[in-house]
C-alpha cells in the first residue's frame, strides 16, 4: 500500500503485500493500491529486516538495560560506526567512495537546513558564490527559446506531464508510449520535450504521435538547466490554466496509481520529489556530474530535489524563472534549482517514492547511476504488476 500524508513534508510508502493465492493486490487500513513485483522479493526483504532488527536489538541491549557504563570506550566507538561496513557493501561504487565527503558535508549545518543562507536574494547568492559579480552580459535563461515543434494538447489543462528526452532517443519514447504513458494520461497529458541535434527525426515522429515539444537550441547534458527554464517559460506563457508541472526523465517507469495520490498540491511555491542533502561537489572530471570549482566554489551542495522526477507548482516555476538570471549558472539542473530554491524561498518537500532505484514501493522508478536501456526498462515493466 502507499499512504501519502498531506500533514507532513515527508511522504512515506509502506504496507505493500502480495496475495499468493490469487496474485491480487488488495487495499487495507486507509491506504491506496500500489503494485508489487512478487512474493520472492518480499520474503527476502522480510528476512533481511528480521536480521537487521536482531542485530540492532543485540547491539543496543546493554544500553537499554542501563549497562552502558559496562562498555569500554573502544566498544562504544565500534558500536557507533558499526553501520559503515554494511553501507560500503550495500551501496553502489560511487556512493561508497563519496562516504568521507558526505560525512564532511553533514558537518555544514547551513547547507543542510531548509532555511535560506540570507534573508535577501543577492546576499544569499553571494554566500554561495562569494567571488561572483554580475557582469551585465545578456542572460537568456529567462527567455523562452523558439519552439520548432508543438504538441497537440487539450485546452484549459490544470496539469501537464513533461518527459525530458533527447532527440536521438526514440527507443525510450516508444517504450514509454507502449507502457506507462496510457496509464498516466488518464490523469494528465504526457509530452516529450527535446531540443535539437544533427540529423534528428523528430518532425516525422511528431507527425505520428503529436506529443513532442521541441525547442531551438542544442540538446546536451550541459544544457539541462536551459531546457528546464524553457519548459517553465512555455508553460507560464502558453498554458495559463496549468497549475502543476510533473517532470521525469525518459529512462523512468511511473506508477500512475501512486502518482494520483500526490496531485492535490497547494498553489504555493513548492517542489515535491526526492530531496537530497549532504551531497558533495563531484571533482572527478570524467564523471558526468563533475562540476568545476570555477562554476561552484563550495565543497557541498544545499538541499535539492533530484531532477529525474518531481512535481512543481506554477508559482514555483514562476519563482525560479524570475530569479534564474540573478545567479551564475550551474549546468546540473537539480543543483542549480536547489541554489535558487534556497535563496528565493521555494519550498522543497521530500517524498520517498521518487527517484527510486529499487523496483518496489515507488512513484517513479529511476536507476540513477547508469542509464538502463529501453529494452531493460520494458522487461521490468512486463515483469511487474503495473499492467
Automatic annotation (TrEMBL):
In the record, biological process GO terms are: protein O-linked glycosylation
The record's listing under InterPro entries reads: Glyco_trans_31 (IPR002659)
**Species, as recorded:** Caenorhabditis auriculariae
Tell me the protein family, please: Belongs to the glycosyltransferase 31 family.
Q: Which GO terms describe its cellular component?
A: Golgi membrane
Which residues are listed as membrane-spanning? 76-94
Q: Does the keyword Aminoacyl-tRNA synthetase apply?
A: no
Predominant location of this chain? Golgi
Q: Does the keyword Transmembrane helix apply?
A: yes
Report a single Gene Ontology molecular function: hexosyltransferase activity
Q: Where in the cell is it found?
A: Golgi apparatus membrane
Stated EC number for the protein is 2.4.1.-
**UniProt keyword terms in alphabetical order:** Glycosyltransferase, Golgi apparatus, Membrane, Signal-anchor, Transferase, Transmembrane, Transmembrane helix
Which first-to-last residue range defines the signal peptide?
Answer: none
If you read the UniProt record, what top EC class would you report for this enzyme, in one word?
transferase
Name used for this protein in its record: Hexosyltransferase
Q: How does it sit in the membrane?
A: Single-pass type II membrane protein
Amino acid at each position: 500500500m502507499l499512504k501519502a500524508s498531506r500533514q507532513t513534508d515527508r511522504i512515506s510508502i509502506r504496507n505493500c503485500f502480495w496475495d499468493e493465492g490469487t496474485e491480487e493486490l488488495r487495499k487495507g487500513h486507509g491506504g491506496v493500491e500500489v503494485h508489487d513485483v512478487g512474493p520472492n522479493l518480499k520474503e527476502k526483504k522480510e528476512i533481511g529486516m528480521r536480521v537487521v532488527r536482531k542485530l540492532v536489538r543485540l547491539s543496543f541491549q546493554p544500553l537499554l538495560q542501563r549497562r552502558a557504563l559496562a562498555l569500554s570506550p573502544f566498544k562504544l566507538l565500534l558500536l557507533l560506526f558499526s553501520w559503515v561496513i554494511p553501507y560500503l557493501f550495500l551501496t553502489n561504487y560511487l556512493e561508497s567512495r563519496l562516504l568521507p565527503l558526505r560525512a564532511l558535508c553533514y558537518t555544514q549545518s547551513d547547507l543542510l537546513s531548509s532555511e535560506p543562507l540570507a534573508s535577501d536574494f543577492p546576499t544569499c547568492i553571494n554566500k554561495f558564490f562569494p567571488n561572483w559579480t554580475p557582469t551585465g552580459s545578456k542572460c537568456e535563461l529567462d527567455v523562452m527559446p523558439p519552439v520548432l515543434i508543438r504538441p497537440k494538447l487539450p485546452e484549459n489543462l490544470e496539469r501537464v506531464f513533461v518527459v525530458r528526452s533527447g532527440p536521438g532517443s526514440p527507443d525510450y519514447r516508444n517504450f514509454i508510449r507502449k507502457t506507462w504513458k496510457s496509464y498516466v494520461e488518464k490523469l494528465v497529458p504526457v509530452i516529450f520535450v527535446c531540443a535539437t541535434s544533427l540529423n534528428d527525426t523528430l518532425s516525422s515522429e511528431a507527425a505520428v504521435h503529436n506529443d513532442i515539444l521541441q525547442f531551438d537550441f542544442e540538446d546536451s547534458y550541459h544544457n539541462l538547466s536551459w531546457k528546464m527554464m524553457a519548459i517553465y517559460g512555455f508553460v507560464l506563457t502558453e498554458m495559463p490554466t496549468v497549475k502543476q508541472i510533473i517532470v521525469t526523465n525518459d529512462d523512468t517507469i511511473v506508477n500512475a496509481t501512486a502518482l494520483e495520490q500526490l496531485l492535490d498540491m497547494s498553489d504555493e511555491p513548492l517542489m515535491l520529489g526526492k530531496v537530497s542533502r549532504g551531497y558533495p561537489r563531484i571533482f572527478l572530471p570524467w564523471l558526468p556530474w563533475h562540476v568545476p570549482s570555477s562554476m561552484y566554489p563550495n565543497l557541498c551542495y544545499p538541499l535539492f530535489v533530484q531532477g529525474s522526477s518531481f512535481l512543481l507548482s506554477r508559482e514555483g516555476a514562476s519563482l525560479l524563472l524570475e530569479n534564474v538570471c540573478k545567479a551564475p549558472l550551474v549546468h546540473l539542473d537539480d543543483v542549480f534549482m536547489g541554489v535558487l530554491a534556497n535563496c528565493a524561498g521555494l519550498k522543497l518537500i521530500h517524498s520517498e517514492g521518487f527517484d527510486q532505484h529499487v523496483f518496489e514501493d515507488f512513484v517513479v522508478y529511476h536507476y540513477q547511476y547508469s542509464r538502463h536501456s529501453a529494452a531493460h526498462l520494458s522487461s521490468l515493466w512486463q515483469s511487474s504488476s503495473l499492467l
